[in-house]
Amino acid sequence: MTVLHDFIRALPKAELHIHIEGCIEPELMFHLAERNGIKLKYPSADSLRNAYRFENLQDFLDIYYAGSSVLLYEQDFYDITWAYLLKAQENNILHTEVMFDPQAHTSRGVPFSAVIGGIYRALVDGYEKLGISFRLILSFLRHLSAEDGFKTLEEAVPFQGWITAVGLDSSEKNFPPDLFADLFEKAIEMGFLTVAHAGEDGPPEYIWAALDLLKASRIDHGNSAIQDSDLVDVLGIYEIPLTSCPISNLKLKLIQSMADHPLKEMLDRGIKVNVNSDDPAYFGGYLNDNFIAVADALNLSKDEIVHLVKNSFEASFITDGEKRAFLKKVEEASCY
Ligand code: ADE
Ligand code: ZN
């Protein structure tokens, strides 16, 4: 098995579903809390890590937003992004599409410019120093109002050139995409691409709505798609990618065991699914760990792993020429 694990580690990869606020390892959280004079509820990084046991999505989100409160200044956003990029390098990630949640910070009085400024400066450094290319996705929090989303979209205008797409995340149940149709229409009018978390713990209807009303180019998670065979057909025919996050799904008890993950069935039924880490500092697994976990539990072959990796590059928001160059690197690495 370790041969397959080494094969996974050596493959050049893309990551398309990663929340930058989900990359604050407990040690870094303590460091930032101390630097900013913030007292955390836990006495040590280890005790904080031990508290990362979640019964469901909301359980996790409560801790995730509490953790985000250590972020106050531009440098803080730089530091968490840089920490992720070093992990990305370790995981042989050549291209990443990073999501950020501005409302989690502007609601605490942190300026939008500090949030995006720090993230973007680190991403540019990551490109120049580590050779990792990137896109940035502004995610709206769906537990807040569409009106709040419009305010955030307005704040993004001076930085529009830095942002490729808008997304939708946070608590899914009872916050259907329908609530954000006008907001996404406006974002599309402004030239943004769109993605949306849908079918993470919500029903297939939310995936339909993300496609029909939000015009999502990709669905984040999309676990429940498999329950609706018409939806499976549409995702396959229109080549709409699902950005799957297996360890996240397991840690949030959306599946009982990794062997129950729908990833292989999605692949077999023709969906362009890919593998991602979501919030690795909270779920205890970066991208290679996610690949290894599903490869082991679902008995994936080398070909299936290469297929998943190619799906990531193909589903990314880079140009066709860039995709071809990355896919050639995957081909070369998978020949060994
Ligand atoms: N924000 C960060 N991680 C998330 C997840 N897994 N689902 C919804 N919102 C999120
Ligand atoms: Zn996510």
Could you give a short description of this structure?
Helix content is 51%, strand content 13%. It is α/β, with parallel strands linked by helices and 336 residues long.
Walk me through what this model shows.
The chain is an alpha/beta fold and 336 residues long. The protein has a single domain (2-334), classed as Metal-dependent hydrolases (TIM Barrel). Helices cover 51% and strands 13% of the residues. The chain has 17 helices and 8 strands. It has helices spanning 2-10, 26-35, 45-50, 57-68, 74-90, 103-106, 112-130, 146-156, 181-189, 204-212, 229-237, 246-251, 263-268, 280-283, 287-298, 302-315, 320-334; strands at 13-19, 93-100, 133-141, 165-169, 193-198, 218-221, 242-244, 273-275. The chain has an 8-stranded parallel β-sheet. The radius of gyration is 19 Å and the shape is globular. It starts with a helix and ends with a helix. Residues 17, 19, 169, 197, 220, 278 line the site of zinc ion.
Topology:
Layout: H1 2-10, E1 13-19, H2 26-35, H3 45-50, H4 57-68, H5 74-90, E2 93-100, H6 103-106, H7 112-130, E3 133-141, H8 146-156, E4 165-169, H9 181-189, E5 193-198, H10 204-212, E6 218-221, H11 229-237, E7 242-244, H12 246-251, H13 263-268, E8 273-275, H14 280-283, H15 287-298, H16 302-315, H17 320-334
Parallel strand pairs: 1-2, 2-3, 3-4, 4-5, 5-6, 6-7, 7-8
Helix pairs in contact: 1-15, 5-7, 16-17
The chain binds adenine and zinc ion.
Keywords:
TIM Barrel; alpha/beta; single chain; binds adenine; binds zinc ion; 8 strands; 336 residues
